[in-house]
Design goal:
about 30% helix, about 25% strand, T-fold, alpha+beta, 10 helices, globular, 15 strands, 8-stranded antiparallel β-sheet, 3 domains, 3-stranded antiparallel β-sheet, disordered N terminus, about 325 residues
Length: about 325
């Protein structure tokens, strides 16, 4: 006897789901396309709480604070381990411009957990610098040790990118293949809008300081995979005696960034990579940063900068130009 089984192709009934909320001192937004709401806000918030318990300087009980308060070091959890590994790799790749041991300098310049507008003097900076260098960290297995008790880490230059990747992984775990995840302006995309099949559209802020303040968009790129992050001197700063003090601090000199760059937008395959490099590129200055990105096949970047005459201009690496003009 022959048994014939007929199967009909079932068309997918796509629905658009949107989740938003507050986390890590900023906001997040997730849009995904699926048949059912398999990923809920409570699931996202639970994942973000887990990340905070590991990486947040604002949580007294976090693993990062346990390390900072230790004399010699601690055993890391899975999140802190992955971020520290990536941070050490980026430190080496940027010749020390990306350095998570910058925390004492961040605090001294008033951008730490306790905010202030106190400008440290040269003596204070000189006293802090011996505590700043990733070379003072030793990672063996999942244990992170430090050579001096004064060594403390700050992951603000990479943690949000990593968090975006973790949220993307959570969506994929539940079978979501078309999504856009945004946290504090850091973005990761996979797939397309459904059922239209359009690529996801990402806006880049305008290379004009007035437009920056009003969050106007200059460029719009379309993606179906990868991550976009931005670092800018216009985002976190204060003024002291007529000088702009930015949160972008050079770990080698101990002083905030002073060059022509206003912002750098980086594209990479994942958000932890893009986020790790955007601050370092800001510190390099335009010429060095553009040359650095052109040597890398895993990065693309868009730069907004100020000319010698004060006018605002923009440029991009060859790979980023292809994103803007597919």
């Amino acid at each position: 006897m022959l048994l014939v089984i007929f199967s009909a192709h079932r068309s997918v009934e796509w629905k658009r789901f949107a989740i938003s909320g507050a986390a890590q001192g900023t906001t997040y937004s997730i849009i995904y396309y699926a048949e059912d709401s398999t990923v809920t806000k409570s699931l996202i918030d639970s994942e973000l709480m887990s990340l905070d318990s590991s990486l947040s300087l604002y949580k007294p009980y976090s693993r990062i604070n346990q390390f900072n308060n230790s004399i010699k070091g601690i055993t890391l959890d899975k999140h802190l381990l992955q971020v520290v590994k990536k941070s050490i790799d980026t430190y080496k790749a940027t010749n020390g411009l990306f350095d998570i041991t910058v925390q004492p300098l961040v605090h001294a310049w008033g951008f730490g957990v306790t905010k202030s507008r106190y400008v440290p003097d040269a003596v204070a900076i000189k006293n802090i610098l011996p505590c700043v260098s990733t070379k003072l960290l030793q990672l063996k297995g999942n244990r992170l040790s430090k050579s001096k008790p004064c060594v403390k880490i700050d992951l603000n230059g990479i943690a949000q990118g990593y968090s975006v990747d973790i949220l993307a992984a959570l969506l994929e775990k539940y079978g979501v293949k078309n999504y856009i995840v945004e946290l504090g302006g850091e973005i990761r995309v996979k797939g397309r809008k459904q059922p239209s099949g359009e690529k996801m559209k990402i806006g880049i802020e305008s290379p004009n300081e007035d437009a920056f303040e009003n969050h106007l968009l200059q460029k719009i790129i379309e993606l179906d995979k990868g991550a976009i992050t931005t670092s800018g001197s216009y985002r976190k700063y204060y003024e002291s005696k007529g000088q702009k003090i930015t949160h972008l601090i050079n770990p080698k000199t101990g002083y905030p960034q002073k060059n022509e760059l206003i912002s750098v937008t980086v594209y990479a395959k994942d958000a932890i990579t893009a986020d790790a490099y955007d601050n370092a590129l800001m510190l390099m200055g335009l010429k060095q940063a553009l040359a650095f990105v052109e040597r890398r096949k895993d990065l693309a970047a868009y730069f907004v900068y100020k000319n010698a005459n004060g006018s605002i201009a923009d440029t991009a690496s060859s790979a980023f130009l292809k994103l803007m003009n597919p």
